[in-house]
Design goal:
The protein is an all-alpha fold and 135 residues long. The protein is 65% helix and 3% strand. It has 2 domains: 66 residues, Orthogonal Bundle (Multidrug-efflux Transporter Regulator, Chain: A, Domain 2); 65 residues, no CATH class. α4 packs antiparallel against α5. It is elongated, with a radius of gyration of 22 Å.
């Protein structure tokens, strides 16, 4: 996320301010609403007004997307959230997040292994540069 605009339950943000605070474009915010990732946003005088709760939800969506969660899984999570805290909804939301966390952890392990390999290669270059050239 970019630098967040301070929000509170009593403050509402225009779509431009919500876009700036979330790091998403106004187009993306409208698209997320259209596909059901965001519940319909309150409107005043025809203009969308984003609440603190809307901004917290957007923050969560941005984090999920930034970590590679598919739009389909994000939509499923949003659908389950709207069903409320039923046992089935809670169980499935938890499972979605656990699966995502497991994928993230596997990716982090792979990146750490690759970083170790690269650092080893850098060490070899440093070693070669320190050794006198042989004719």
């Amino acid at each position: 996320m970019t630098t967040a605009i301070p929000v509170s339950p009593t403050v509402s943000l225009s779509i431009a301010d919500a876009a700036e605070a979330s790091g998403l474009s106004a187009y993306t915010l409208r698209y997320y609403e259209k596909i059901g990732l965001i519940a319909p946003i309150d409107r005043r005088s025809g203009a969308r007004r984003y609440s603190d709760a809307d901004m917290r939800w957007l923050d969560f969506l941005v984090r999920l997307r930034a970590t590679g969660m598919s739009m389909r899984d994000m939509q499923r999570y949003a659908q389950l959230l709207r069903k409320g805290n039923t046992a089935g909804s809670l169980t499935e939301r938890q499972a979605l997040l656990e699966e995502h966390a497991a994928r993230l952890e596997a990716g982090l392990r792979a990146q750490r292994e690759t970083l170790q390999y690269i650092r080893k290669k850098i060490g070899l270059y440093e070693e070669q540069r320190r050794e006198p050239r042989r004719a």
